Protein backbone atom coordinates (compact mmCIF):
# COMPACT_ATOMS: atom_id res chain seq x y z
CA UNK A 1 0.00 0.00 0.00
CA UNK A 2 1.13 3.55 -0.74
CA UNK A 3 0.19 6.07 1.95
CA UNK A 4 0.75 9.81 1.84
CA UNK A 5 0.50 11.73 5.11
CA UNK A 6 -0.01 15.49 4.92
CA UNK A 7 2.07 15.80 1.75
CA UNK A 8 2.50 19.36 0.45
CA UNK A 9 4.59 21.02 -2.22
CA UNK A 10 5.22 24.71 -2.30
CA UNK A 11 7.03 26.65 -5.02
CA UNK A 12 7.52 30.11 -3.59
CA UNK A 13 4.03 31.32 -2.76
CA UNK A 14 2.26 28.75 -4.90
CA UNK A 15 0.93 25.71 -3.08
CA UNK A 16 0.90 23.04 -5.78
CA UNK A 17 0.01 20.08 -3.60
CA UNK A 18 -1.90 20.94 -0.45
CA UNK A 19 -1.76 18.63 2.58
CA UNK A 20 -2.66 15.41 0.79
CA UNK A 21 -3.31 12.30 2.88
CA UNK A 22 -4.50 9.35 0.89
CA UNK A 23 -3.81 5.69 0.40
CA UNK A 24 -3.50 3.71 -2.79
CA UNK A 25 -4.37 0.05 -2.28
CA UNK A 26 -2.01 -2.72 -3.27
CA UNK A 27 -2.96 -4.42 -6.54
CA UNK A 28 -5.16 -3.11 -9.30
CA UNK A 29 -5.11 -0.07 -11.51
CA UNK A 30 -5.38 3.40 -10.05
CA UNK A 31 -5.74 6.51 -12.21
CA UNK A 32 -5.13 10.06 -11.07
CA UNK A 33 -7.18 12.57 -13.08
CA UNK A 34 -7.96 16.26 -12.80
CA UNK A 35 -7.60 19.58 -14.59
CA UNK A 36 -4.22 21.08 -15.50
CA UNK A 37 -2.27 22.37 -12.53
CA UNK A 38 -4.16 20.20 -10.05
CA UNK A 39 -0.86 18.80 -8.76
CA UNK A 40 -1.24 15.26 -10.16
CA UNK A 41 2.26 14.92 -11.60
CA UNK A 42 3.85 16.67 -8.64
CA UNK A 43 2.12 14.30 -6.23
CA UNK A 44 3.28 11.31 -8.28
CA UNK A 45 6.85 12.53 -8.36
CA UNK A 46 6.85 13.13 -4.60
CA UNK A 47 5.49 9.63 -3.99
CA UNK A 48 8.36 8.29 -6.09
CA UNK A 49 10.98 10.56 -4.35
CA UNK A 50 11.86 12.41 -7.59
CA UNK A 51 10.69 15.72 -6.09
CA UNK A 52 11.37 16.59 -2.46
CA UNK A 53 8.30 17.32 -0.34
CA UNK A 54 7.77 20.63 1.41
CA UNK A 55 5.89 18.82 4.15
CA UNK A 56 4.51 15.40 4.96
CA UNK A 57 5.71 11.88 4.34
CA UNK A 58 5.11 9.01 1.95
CA UNK A 59 5.17 5.36 2.95
CA UNK A 60 5.44 2.52 0.46
CA UNK A 61 4.67 -0.76 2.23
CA UNK A 62 5.60 1.03 5.42
CA UNK A 63 8.96 2.32 4.08
CA UNK A 64 9.49 6.07 4.20
CA UNK A 65 10.54 7.02 0.67
CA UNK A 66 12.89 9.80 1.76
CA UNK A 67 14.76 7.57 4.21
CA UNK A 68 14.79 4.20 2.51
CA UNK A 69 17.98 3.55 0.50
CA UNK A 70 17.39 4.28 -3.18
CA UNK A 71 18.24 0.81 -4.40
CA UNK A 72 15.91 -0.87 -1.90
CA UNK A 73 13.04 1.31 -3.06
CA UNK A 74 14.00 0.77 -6.70
CA UNK A 75 13.22 -2.93 -6.29
CA UNK A 76 9.77 -2.10 -4.89
CA UNK A 77 8.60 0.89 -6.89
CA UNK A 78 9.34 2.21 -10.36
CA UNK A 79 8.45 5.57 -11.89
CA UNK A 80 8.40 6.76 -15.46
CA UNK A 81 7.91 10.43 -16.18
CA UNK A 82 6.80 11.91 -19.46
CA UNK A 83 9.23 13.37 -22.01
CA UNK A 84 12.00 10.85 -21.80
CA UNK A 85 14.20 12.42 -24.41
CA UNK A 86 17.77 11.40 -24.57
CA UNK A 87 20.59 12.14 -26.92
CA UNK A 88 22.25 8.91 -25.90
CA UNK A 89 22.90 6.39 -28.60
CA UNK A 90 21.62 3.24 -27.00
CA UNK A 91 19.91 0.28 -28.57
CA UNK A 92 16.41 -0.58 -27.40
CA UNK A 93 17.70 -3.72 -25.72
CA UNK A 94 20.44 -1.83 -23.87
CA UNK A 95 17.88 0.67 -22.58
CA UNK A 96 15.51 -2.07 -21.43
CA UNK A 97 18.40 -3.89 -19.73
CA UNK A 98 19.03 -0.82 -17.54
CA UNK A 99 15.78 -1.78 -15.78
CA UNK A 100 17.74 -4.61 -14.13
CA UNK A 101 20.23 -2.21 -12.54
CA UNK A 102 18.56 -2.21 -9.09
CA UNK A 103 18.77 -6.02 -9.03
CA UNK A 104 22.18 -6.69 -10.52
CA UNK A 105 24.08 -3.42 -10.15
CA UNK A 106 25.07 -3.35 -13.80
CA UNK A 107 26.23 -6.94 -14.27
CA UNK A 108 23.52 -8.88 -16.04
CA UNK A 109 22.91 -12.42 -14.85
CA UNK A 110 21.02 -15.11 -16.75
CA UNK A 111 18.01 -14.27 -14.61
CA UNK A 112 18.29 -10.61 -15.63
CA UNK A 113 18.51 -11.50 -19.32
CA UNK A 114 15.35 -13.57 -18.96
CA UNK A 115 13.53 -10.53 -17.53
CA UNK A 116 14.86 -8.33 -20.34
CA UNK A 117 13.66 -10.71 -23.02
CA UNK A 118 10.31 -11.10 -21.31
CA UNK A 119 9.79 -7.32 -21.14
CA UNK A 120 10.80 -6.97 -24.80
CA UNK A 121 8.24 -9.64 -25.73
CA UNK A 122 5.61 -8.10 -23.51
CA UNK A 123 5.91 -4.73 -25.28
CA UNK A 124 6.46 -6.35 -28.68
CA UNK A 125 9.80 -4.66 -29.16
CA UNK A 126 11.70 -7.63 -30.55
CA UNK A 127 11.85 -6.35 -34.10
CA UNK A 128 13.48 -3.13 -32.83
CA UNK A 129 15.85 -4.69 -30.36
CA UNK A 130 19.05 -3.47 -32.01
CA UNK A 131 17.72 -0.12 -33.20
CA UNK A 132 19.10 3.00 -31.49
CA UNK A 133 16.33 4.61 -29.41
CA UNK A 134 16.86 8.03 -30.98
CA UNK A 135 15.75 6.58 -34.32
CA UNK A 136 12.40 5.35 -33.00
CA UNK A 137 9.04 7.10 -33.28
CA UNK A 138 7.56 8.67 -30.15
CA UNK A 139 5.25 5.73 -29.51
CA UNK A 140 7.96 3.14 -29.97
CA UNK A 141 10.34 5.03 -27.73
CA UNK A 142 7.67 5.32 -25.05
CA UNK A 143 7.16 1.57 -25.25
CA UNK A 144 10.89 1.02 -24.86
CA UNK A 145 10.92 3.10 -21.66
CA UNK A 146 7.85 1.27 -20.34
CA UNK A 147 9.65 -2.01 -21.09
CA UNK A 148 12.61 -0.76 -19.01
CA UNK A 149 10.28 -0.08 -16.09
CA UNK A 150 8.52 -3.44 -16.56
CA UNK A 151 11.80 -5.28 -16.52
CA UNK A 152 12.62 -3.52 -13.26
CA UNK A 153 9.90 -5.92 -12.02
CA UNK A 154 8.61 -3.85 -9.12
CA UNK A 155 5.44 -4.34 -7.12
CA UNK A 156 4.40 -0.72 -7.78
CA UNK A 157 4.60 0.82 -11.26
CA UNK A 158 3.98 4.58 -11.46
CA UNK A 159 3.59 6.31 -14.81
CA UNK A 160 3.09 10.00 -15.50
CA UNK A 161 0.94 10.49 -18.58
CA UNK A 162 2.16 7.45 -20.49
CA UNK A 163 -0.25 8.23 -23.34
CA UNK A 164 1.24 11.61 -24.15
CA UNK A 165 2.12 12.03 -27.81
CA UNK A 166 1.13 8.57 -28.88
CA UNK A 167 -1.65 7.74 -31.29
CA UNK A 168 -4.91 5.92 -30.51
CA UNK A 169 -3.70 2.48 -31.43
CA UNK A 170 -0.58 2.70 -29.31
CA UNK A 171 -2.55 4.31 -26.50
CA UNK A 172 -5.02 1.41 -26.40
CA UNK A 173 -2.11 -1.01 -26.65
CA UNK A 174 -0.35 0.65 -23.74
CA UNK A 175 -3.44 0.71 -21.52
CA UNK A 176 -4.16 -2.94 -22.26
CA UNK A 177 -0.66 -3.85 -21.41
CA UNK A 178 -0.76 -1.99 -18.10
CA UNK A 179 -4.12 -3.57 -17.33
CA UNK A 180 -2.59 -6.99 -18.03
CA UNK A 181 0.35 -6.20 -15.75
CA UNK A 182 -2.15 -5.55 -12.96
CA UNK A 183 -4.32 -8.60 -13.74
CA UNK A 184 -1.76 -11.22 -14.67
CA UNK A 185 1.28 -10.17 -12.68
CA UNK A 186 -0.52 -8.68 -9.72
CA UNK A 187 1.27 -5.34 -10.04
CA UNK A 188 -0.04 -2.13 -8.56
CA UNK A 189 -0.28 0.32 -11.46
CA UNK A 190 -0.70 4.04 -10.73
CA UNK A 191 -1.10 6.31 -13.74
CA UNK A 192 -1.64 10.04 -14.18
CA UNK A 193 -4.04 10.41 -17.11
CA UNK A 194 -5.44 13.33 -19.03
CA UNK A 195 -7.92 11.32 -21.04
CA UNK A 196 -10.83 10.64 -18.68
CA UNK A 197 -12.30 8.04 -21.03
CA UNK A 198 -9.20 5.90 -20.71
CA UNK A 199 -9.35 6.34 -16.95
CA UNK A 200 -13.00 5.34 -17.01
CA UNK A 201 -12.50 2.21 -19.10
CA UNK A 202 -9.37 0.77 -17.47
CA UNK A 203 -9.23 1.80 -13.81
CA UNK A 204 -10.25 -0.03 -10.67
CA UNK A 205 -9.84 3.11 -8.65
CA UNK A 206 -9.81 6.80 -9.59
CA UNK A 207 -8.34 9.70 -7.63
CA UNK A 208 -9.67 13.04 -8.92
CA UNK A 209 -7.54 16.02 -7.96
CA UNK A 210 -8.32 19.71 -8.01
CA UNK A 211 -6.24 22.62 -6.72
CA UNK A 212 -3.65 20.43 -5.08
CA UNK A 213 -6.11 18.21 -3.21
CA UNK A 214 -7.90 14.98 -3.98
CA UNK A 215 -11.49 16.14 -4.55
CA UNK A 216 -13.04 12.72 -5.18
CA UNK A 217 -11.94 9.13 -4.91
CA UNK A 218 -13.69 5.94 -5.86
CA UNK A 219 -14.49 3.42 -8.53
CA UNK A 220 -15.16 4.58 -12.11
CA UNK A 221 -18.90 4.14 -11.42
CA UNK A 222 -18.61 6.60 -8.56
CA UNK A 223 -16.37 9.16 -10.25
CA UNK A 224 -17.34 9.09 -13.91
CA UNK A 225 -20.69 10.86 -13.41
CA UNK A 226 -22.07 14.09 -14.83
CA UNK A 227 -22.22 15.99 -11.57
CA UNK A 228 -18.81 14.88 -10.27
CA UNK A 229 -17.02 15.71 -13.51
CA UNK A 230 -18.84 19.05 -13.89
CA UNK A 231 -17.65 20.03 -10.45
CA UNK A 232 -14.11 18.75 -11.08
CA UNK A 233 -13.48 20.31 -14.48
CA UNK A 234 -15.97 23.22 -14.25
CA UNK A 235 -17.56 22.30 -17.56
CA UNK A 236 -20.46 20.26 -18.86
CA UNK A 237 -19.56 16.65 -19.33
CA UNK A 238 -22.20 14.03 -20.15
CA UNK A 239 -21.52 10.44 -19.32
CA UNK A 240 -23.07 7.81 -21.59
CA UNK A 241 -22.94 4.08 -21.25
CA UNK A 242 -21.67 2.64 -24.55
CA UNK A 243 -21.06 -1.11 -24.88
CA UNK A 244 -20.86 -1.36 -21.14
CA UNK A 245 -18.23 1.38 -20.80
CA UNK A 246 -18.83 4.78 -19.27
CA UNK A 247 -17.85 7.31 -21.92
CA UNK A 248 -17.63 11.06 -21.34
CA UNK A 249 -18.89 13.38 -24.04
CA UNK A 250 -17.73 16.97 -23.78
CA UNK A 251 -16.36 17.89 -27.21
CA UNK A 252 -19.18 20.14 -28.46
CA UNK A 253 -21.89 21.35 -26.22
CA UNK A 254 -25.29 22.46 -27.40
CA UNK B 1 35.04 -10.40 -26.00
CA UNK B 2 33.19 -8.87 -28.89
CA UNK B 3 35.86 -8.30 -31.47
CA UNK B 4 33.84 -9.62 -34.37
CA UNK B 5 33.43 -6.40 -36.29
CA UNK B 6 35.31 -3.18 -36.92
CA UNK B 7 32.35 -1.40 -35.37
CA UNK B 8 32.99 -2.99 -32.01
CA UNK B 9 34.09 -0.40 -29.43
CA UNK B 10 36.50 -2.94 -27.91
CA UNK B 11 38.39 -3.23 -31.17
CA UNK B 12 38.49 0.51 -31.58
CA UNK B 13 39.84 1.05 -28.09
CA UNK B 14 42.46 -1.59 -28.84
CA UNK B 15 43.40 0.32 -31.98
CA UNK B 16 43.75 3.53 -29.97
CA UNK B 17 45.92 1.69 -27.45
CA UNK B 18 48.29 0.50 -30.17
CA UNK B 19 48.47 3.99 -31.63
CA UNK B 20 49.13 5.53 -28.21
CA UNK B 21 51.87 2.97 -27.51
CA UNK B 22 53.53 3.77 -30.85
CA UNK B 23 53.49 7.46 -29.93
CA UNK B 24 55.05 6.71 -26.55
CA UNK B 25 57.79 4.53 -28.05
CA UNK B 26 58.48 7.13 -30.75
CA UNK B 27 58.61 9.91 -28.20
CA UNK B 28 61.20 8.06 -26.15
CA UNK B 29 63.42 6.79 -28.95
CA UNK B 30 63.36 9.16 -31.91
CA UNK B 31 66.47 11.25 -32.65
CA UNK B 32 68.47 10.23 -29.63
CA UNK B 33 71.90 11.70 -30.26
CA UNK B 34 73.47 12.15 -26.88
CA UNK B 35 73.78 9.71 -24.11
CA UNK B 36 70.78 7.48 -23.47
CA UNK B 37 70.66 7.72 -19.71
CA UNK B 38 70.18 11.47 -19.81
CA UNK B 39 67.62 11.36 -22.62
CA UNK B 40 65.63 8.61 -20.95
CA UNK B 41 65.46 10.56 -17.72
CA UNK B 42 64.71 13.90 -19.38
CA UNK B 43 62.14 12.57 -21.82
CA UNK B 44 60.84 10.04 -19.32
CA UNK B 45 59.79 12.65 -16.79
CA UNK B 46 58.15 14.76 -19.50
CA UNK B 47 56.43 11.69 -20.89
CA UNK B 48 55.13 10.78 -17.45
CA UNK B 49 53.76 14.29 -17.01
CA UNK B 50 52.00 14.12 -20.38
CA UNK B 51 50.54 10.70 -19.58
CA UNK B 52 49.25 11.87 -16.20
CA UNK B 53 47.78 14.97 -17.86
CA UNK B 54 46.02 12.92 -20.53
CA UNK B 55 44.53 10.66 -17.83
CA UNK B 56 43.43 13.55 -15.63
CA UNK B 57 41.90 15.67 -18.39
CA UNK B 58 40.44 12.74 -20.34
CA UNK B 59 38.66 11.22 -17.34
CA UNK B 60 37.59 14.49 -15.72
CA UNK B 61 36.05 15.81 -18.94
CA UNK B 62 34.04 12.67 -19.69
CA UNK B 63 32.81 12.50 -16.06
CA UNK B 64 31.86 16.18 -16.08
CA UNK B 65 29.97 15.78 -19.33
CA UNK B 66 28.11 12.79 -17.88
CA UNK B 67 26.93 14.61 -14.78
CA UNK B 68 26.02 17.79 -16.71
CA UNK B 69 24.42 15.88 -19.63
CA UNK B 70 26.29 17.90 -22.18
CA UNK B 71 28.93 17.31 -24.79
CA UNK B 72 29.89 20.95 -24.78
CA UNK B 73 30.53 21.81 -21.14
CA UNK B 74 33.92 20.86 -19.69
CA UNK B 75 35.62 21.65 -16.38
CA UNK B 76 38.07 23.90 -18.24
CA UNK B 77 35.31 25.88 -19.98
CA UNK B 78 33.43 26.30 -16.71
CA UNK B 79 36.49 27.86 -15.08
CA UNK B 80 37.60 24.99 -12.84
CA UNK B 81 41.21 24.96 -14.11
CA UNK B 82 41.61 28.62 -13.29
CA UNK B 83 39.88 28.02 -9.95
CA UNK B 84 42.80 25.74 -9.09
CA UNK B 85 45.27 28.48 -10.01
CA UNK B 86 43.36 30.81 -7.71
CA UNK B 87 43.37 28.23 -4.91
CA UNK B 88 47.11 27.91 -5.36
CA UNK B 89 47.70 31.59 -4.66
CA UNK B 90 44.97 31.88 -2.03
CA UNK B 91 46.44 29.06 0.04
CA UNK B 92 49.75 30.92 0.09
CA UNK B 93 48.04 34.16 1.00
CA UNK B 94 46.03 32.68 3.86
CA UNK B 95 48.58 30.33 5.39
CA UNK B 96 51.54 32.56 4.72
CA UNK B 97 54.32 31.63 2.34
CA UNK B 98 57.11 31.38 4.85
CA UNK B 99 55.26 28.84 6.92
CA UNK B 100 54.24 26.78 3.93
CA UNK B 101 57.77 26.87 2.59
CA UNK B 102 58.74 24.48 5.33
CA UNK B 103 56.19 21.96 4.09
CA UNK B 104 57.18 19.33 1.54
CA UNK B 105 55.76 20.30 -1.89
CA UNK B 106 53.61 17.18 -2.01
CA UNK B 107 51.90 18.14 1.25
CA UNK B 108 51.30 21.67 -0.07
CA UNK B 109 49.70 20.11 -3.14
CA UNK B 110 47.49 17.91 -0.95
CA UNK B 111 46.30 20.96 1.00
CA UNK B 112 45.55 22.81 -2.22
CA UNK B 113 43.61 19.85 -3.60
CA UNK B 114 41.48 19.76 -0.44
CA UNK B 115 40.63 23.45 -0.71
CA UNK B 116 40.03 22.98 -4.44
CA UNK B 117 37.55 20.14 -3.86
CA UNK B 118 35.58 22.29 -1.41
CA UNK B 119 35.43 25.34 -3.67
CA UNK B 120 34.74 23.27 -6.79
CA UNK B 121 31.76 21.58 -5.12
CA UNK B 122 30.47 25.01 -4.12
CA UNK B 123 30.86 26.41 -7.63
CA UNK B 124 29.25 23.30 -9.11
CA UNK B 125 26.20 23.58 -6.84
CA UNK B 126 25.93 27.27 -7.62
CA UNK B 127 25.98 26.74 -11.38
CA UNK B 128 24.15 23.43 -11.70
CA UNK B 129 21.41 23.67 -9.08
CA UNK B 130 18.90 23.93 -11.91
CA UNK B 131 18.39 27.69 -11.97
CA UNK B 132 20.43 28.15 -15.17
CA UNK B 133 18.57 26.34 -17.91
CA UNK B 134 20.13 27.75 -21.07
CA UNK B 135 23.29 26.06 -22.27
CA UNK B 136 24.57 29.29 -23.81
CA UNK B 137 24.05 31.19 -20.59
CA UNK B 138 25.88 28.40 -18.78
CA UNK B 139 28.89 28.70 -21.11
CA UNK B 140 28.90 32.45 -20.67
CA UNK B 141 28.79 32.09 -16.89
CA UNK B 142 31.64 29.58 -17.02
CA UNK B 143 33.79 31.93 -19.07
CA UNK B 144 32.98 34.81 -16.73
CA UNK B 145 33.87 32.66 -13.73
CA UNK B 146 37.16 31.78 -15.42
CA UNK B 147 37.96 35.45 -16.04
CA UNK B 148 37.02 36.40 -12.51
CA UNK B 149 39.23 33.68 -11.01
CA UNK B 150 42.14 34.70 -13.23
CA UNK B 151 41.87 38.35 -12.17
CA UNK B 152 41.49 37.42 -8.50
CA UNK B 153 44.48 35.16 -8.69
CA UNK B 154 46.60 37.92 -10.22
CA UNK B 155 45.40 40.32 -7.57
CA UNK B 156 46.31 37.84 -4.85
CA UNK B 157 49.72 37.32 -6.44
CA UNK B 158 50.37 41.07 -6.30
CA UNK B 159 49.48 41.18 -2.63
CA UNK B 160 51.93 38.38 -1.98
CA UNK B 161 55.51 39.19 -1.26
CA UNK B 162 57.53 38.26 -4.37
CA UNK B 163 59.70 35.90 -2.38
CA UNK B 164 56.64 34.12 -1.08
CA UNK B 165 55.21 33.92 -4.54
CA UNK B 166 58.39 32.21 -5.61
CA UNK B 167 57.68 29.20 -3.44
CA UNK B 168 54.24 28.61 -4.85
CA UNK B 169 54.11 25.20 -6.46
CA UNK B 170 55.00 26.73 -9.79
CA UNK B 171 51.44 26.50 -11.05
CA UNK B 172 50.93 29.96 -12.49
CA UNK B 173 53.94 29.40 -14.68
CA UNK B 174 53.25 25.80 -15.70
CA UNK B 175 52.26 25.18 -19.30
CA UNK B 176 52.79 22.55 -21.97
CA UNK B 177 56.07 24.31 -22.74
CA UNK B 178 57.16 24.42 -19.14
CA UNK B 179 55.85 21.24 -17.68
CA UNK B 180 56.09 21.13 -13.93
CA UNK B 181 57.97 17.89 -13.32
CA UNK B 182 58.72 18.54 -9.61
CA UNK B 183 55.34 17.28 -8.53
CA UNK B 184 55.07 14.15 -10.67
CA UNK B 185 54.86 11.88 -7.62
CA UNK B 186 52.21 13.99 -5.91
CA UNK B 187 50.23 14.26 -9.16
CA UNK B 188 50.38 10.49 -9.65
CA UNK B 189 49.17 10.01 -6.07
CA UNK B 190 46.28 12.43 -6.71
CA UNK B 191 45.34 10.49 -9.81
CA UNK B 192 45.42 7.24 -7.84
CA UNK B 193 43.16 8.66 -5.12
CA UNK B 194 40.70 9.93 -7.75
CA UNK B 195 40.75 6.52 -9.42
CA UNK B 196 40.05 4.69 -6.16
CA UNK B 197 37.15 7.02 -5.36
CA UNK B 198 35.76 6.54 -8.84
CA UNK B 199 35.80 2.75 -8.45
CA UNK B 200 32.94 3.09 -5.94
CA UNK B 201 30.68 4.71 -8.50
CA UNK B 202 31.89 3.03 -11.69
CA UNK B 203 28.67 1.09 -12.18
CA UNK B 204 26.47 4.16 -11.68
CA UNK B 205 28.09 6.16 -14.49
CA UNK B 206 26.10 4.70 -17.39
CA UNK B 207 22.89 5.01 -15.37
CA UNK B 208 23.62 8.67 -14.60
CA UNK B 209 23.80 9.47 -18.29
CA UNK B 210 20.14 8.43 -18.64
CA UNK B 211 19.15 11.55 -16.70
CA UNK B 212 18.36 12.40 -13.09
CA UNK B 213 14.85 10.97 -12.90
CA UNK B 214 15.70 7.63 -14.44
CA UNK B 215 18.86 7.36 -12.35
CA UNK B 216 16.83 7.89 -9.16
CA UNK B 217 14.20 5.44 -10.38
CA UNK B 218 16.95 2.86 -10.83
CA UNK B 219 18.09 3.40 -7.25
CA UNK B 220 21.12 5.68 -7.68
CA UNK B 221 21.49 8.19 -4.81
CA UNK B 222 21.71 10.89 -7.45
CA UNK B 223 22.59 14.00 -5.43
CA UNK B 224 25.29 12.28 -3.41
CA UNK B 225 26.82 10.40 -6.33
CA UNK B 226 26.96 13.51 -8.52
CA UNK B 227 28.75 15.47 -5.79
CA UNK B 228 31.14 12.57 -5.26
CA UNK B 229 31.96 12.45 -8.95
CA UNK B 230 32.41 16.21 -8.97
CA UNK B 231 34.93 15.81 -6.14
CA UNK B 232 36.81 13.29 -8.31
CA UNK B 233 36.71 15.80 -11.18
CA UNK B 234 38.13 18.51 -8.89
CA UNK B 235 41.05 16.28 -7.87
CA UNK B 236 41.77 15.43 -11.51
CA UNK B 237 41.59 19.08 -12.56
CA UNK B 238 44.12 19.90 -9.82
CA UNK B 239 46.45 17.16 -11.06
CA UNK B 240 46.31 18.38 -14.65
CA UNK B 241 46.62 22.05 -13.76
CA UNK B 242 49.57 21.58 -11.43
CA UNK B 243 51.44 19.81 -14.23
CA UNK B 244 50.64 21.82 -17.36
CA UNK B 245 48.65 24.84 -16.19
CA UNK B 246 45.10 25.66 -17.24
CA UNK B 247 43.85 24.45 -20.61
CA UNK B 248 40.74 25.59 -22.43
CA UNK B 249 39.59 23.27 -25.22
CA UNK B 250 41.85 20.24 -24.87
CA UNK B 251 39.38 18.23 -22.76
CA UNK B 252 36.52 19.04 -25.11
CA UNK B 253 38.60 17.82 -28.03
CA UNK B 254 39.63 14.45 -26.60
CA UNK B 255 36.27 13.62 -24.99
CA UNK B 256 34.43 14.24 -28.26
CA UNK B 257 37.07 12.32 -30.20
CA UNK B 258 36.43 9.43 -27.81
CA UNK B 259 32.64 9.49 -28.28
CA UNK B 260 32.99 9.75 -32.02
CA UNK B 261 35.64 7.10 -32.39
CA UNK B 262 34.11 4.45 -30.13
CA UNK B 263 30.56 5.20 -31.29
CA UNK B 264 29.51 4.19 -27.78
CA UNK B 265 28.20 5.91 -24.68
CA UNK B 266 29.39 3.26 -22.29
CA UNK B 267 31.93 4.60 -19.84
CA UNK B 268 33.89 1.36 -19.99
CA UNK B 269 34.81 2.48 -23.54
CA UNK B 270 34.60 6.27 -23.48
CA UNK B 271 36.82 6.73 -20.41
CA UNK B 272 39.81 4.76 -21.75
CA UNK B 273 39.26 6.11 -25.26
CA UNK B 274 39.34 9.67 -24.00
CA UNK B 275 42.59 9.05 -22.10
CA UNK B 276 44.14 7.35 -25.14
CA UNK B 277 43.04 10.17 -27.44
CA UNK B 278 44.69 12.54 -24.97
CA UNK B 279 47.94 10.56 -25.06
CA UNK B 280 47.91 10.46 -28.86
CA UNK B 281 47.28 14.22 -29.07
CA UNK B 282 49.88 15.19 -26.47
CA UNK B 283 52.65 12.65 -26.97
CA UNK B 284 52.04 12.08 -30.67
CA UNK B 285 51.59 15.81 -31.25
CA UNK B 286 54.82 16.64 -29.44
CA UNK B 287 56.62 13.91 -31.41
CA UNK B 288 55.30 15.24 -34.69
CA UNK B 289 56.12 18.87 -33.97
CA UNK B 290 59.49 18.35 -32.36
CA UNK B 291 61.04 15.47 -34.29
CA UNK B 292 59.20 15.12 -37.58
CA UNK B 293 58.29 18.66 -38.55
CA UNK B 294 61.13 20.16 -36.50
CA UNK B 295 58.76 23.00 -35.84
CA UNK B 296 58.93 25.42 -32.94
CA UNK B 297 55.17 25.84 -32.99
CA UNK B 298 53.92 25.27 -29.44
CA UNK B 299 51.85 22.10 -29.11
CA UNK B 300 49.33 23.79 -26.83
CA UNK B 301 48.56 26.31 -29.55
CA UNK B 302 47.83 23.62 -32.13
CA UNK B 303 45.68 21.59 -29.73
CA UNK B 304 43.73 24.56 -28.42
CA UNK B 305 43.14 25.75 -31.98
CA UNK B 306 41.75 22.37 -33.00
CA UNK B 307 39.67 22.20 -29.81
CA UNK B 308 38.43 25.75 -30.31
CA UNK B 309 37.29 24.98 -33.85
CA UNK B 310 35.47 21.90 -32.57
CA UNK B 311 33.81 24.01 -29.87
CA UNK B 312 32.51 26.45 -32.49
CA UNK B 313 31.32 23.57 -34.67
CA UNK B 314 29.46 21.95 -31.75
CA UNK B 315 27.97 25.29 -30.79
CA UNK B 316 26.79 25.97 -34.34
CA UNK B 317 25.26 22.51 -34.59
CA UNK B 318 23.45 23.13 -31.32
CA UNK B 319 22.12 26.44 -32.63
CA UNK B 320 20.79 24.85 -35.80
CA UNK B 321 18.95 22.13 -33.87
What does this structure look like?
Chain A is α/β, with parallel strands linked by helices and 254 residues long. Chain A folds into two domains: 2-76 and 154-249, P-loop containing nucleotide triphosphate hydrolases (Rossmann fold), CATH 3.40.50.300; 86-153, no CATH class. Chain A has helices spanning 40-47, 70-73, 92-97, 101-104, 110-122, 138-151, 168-185, 196-202, 220-223, 226-233, and strands at residues 2-11, 14-24, 28-33, 55-60, 63-64, 77-80, 156-160, 188-192, 205-210, 213-218, 238-242, 245-249. In chain A, the strands form three sheets. A six-stranded mixed beta sheet of chain A has the order 6-7-8-3-9-10, with helices on both faces. A four-stranded antiparallel beta sheet of chain A has the order 2-1-4-5, covered by helices on one side. Chain A starts with a strand and ends in a 5-residue tail after the last strand. The model of chain A has no long low-confidence stretch (mean pLDDT 92). Chain B is mostly helical. Chain B has a domain at 50-175 and 182-246: ABC transporter involved in vitamin B12 uptake, BtuC. Chain B is built from 14 helices and no strands. Chain B has helices at residues 9-29, 36-68, 80-95, 97-101, 105-127, 135-159, 162-166, 184-201, 204-208, 212-217, 222-244, 250-262, 267-292, 299-320. In chain B, helix 2 (36-68) packs parallel to helix 8, helix 12 crosses helix 13 (267-292) and helix 12 (250-262) packs across helix 14. The radius of gyration of chain B is 20 Å and the shape is globular. Chain B starts with 8 loop residues before the first helix and ends with a helix. Classes of the chains: A alpha/beta (254), B mainly alpha (321). Chain A binds chain B through residues 45, 48-50, 69-75, 78-81, 84, 86-90, 98-99, 101-102, 105-107, 148-149, 152, and chain B through 71, 203, 206-207, 209-214, 216-222, 263-265.
List the helices and strands and how they pair.
The complex is a heterodimer of chains A (about 250) and B (about 325).
Chain A: E1 2-11, E2 14-24, E3 28-33, H1 40-47, E4 55-60, E5 63-64, H2 70-73, E6 77-80, H3 92-97, H4 101-104, H5 110-122, H6 138-151, E7 156-160, H7 168-185, E8 188-192, H8 196-202, E9 205-210, E10 213-218, H9 220-223, H10 226-233, E11 238-242, E12 245-249
Helix pairs in contact in A: 5-6
Chain B: H1 9-29, H2 36-68, H3 80-95, H4 97-101, H5 105-127, H6 135-159, H7 162-166, H8 184-201, H9 204-208, H10 212-217, H11 222-244, H12 250-262, H13 267-292, H14 299-320
Helix pairs in contact in B: 1-2, 1-13, 2-8, 2-11, 2-12, 2-13, 3-5, 3-6, 3-11, 5-8, 5-11, 8-11, 12-13, 12-14
Amino acid sequence: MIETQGVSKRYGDALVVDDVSLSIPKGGFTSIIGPNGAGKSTLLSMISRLTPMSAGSVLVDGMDVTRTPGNVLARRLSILRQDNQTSLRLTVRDLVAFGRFPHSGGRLTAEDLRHVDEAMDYLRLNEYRDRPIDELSGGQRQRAYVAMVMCQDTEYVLLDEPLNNIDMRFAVDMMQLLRRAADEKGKTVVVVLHDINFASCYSDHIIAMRQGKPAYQGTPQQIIRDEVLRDLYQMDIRVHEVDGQRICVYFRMA
Amino acid sequence: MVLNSWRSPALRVLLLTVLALLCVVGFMTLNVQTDWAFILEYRGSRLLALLLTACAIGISTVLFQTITHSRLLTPALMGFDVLYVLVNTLVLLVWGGSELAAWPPALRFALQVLVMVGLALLLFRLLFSGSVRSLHLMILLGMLAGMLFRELSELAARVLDPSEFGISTGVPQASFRRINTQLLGAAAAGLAVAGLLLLRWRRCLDVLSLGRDIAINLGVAHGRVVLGIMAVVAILVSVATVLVGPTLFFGLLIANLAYWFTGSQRHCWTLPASVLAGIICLVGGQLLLEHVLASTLPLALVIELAGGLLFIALLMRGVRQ
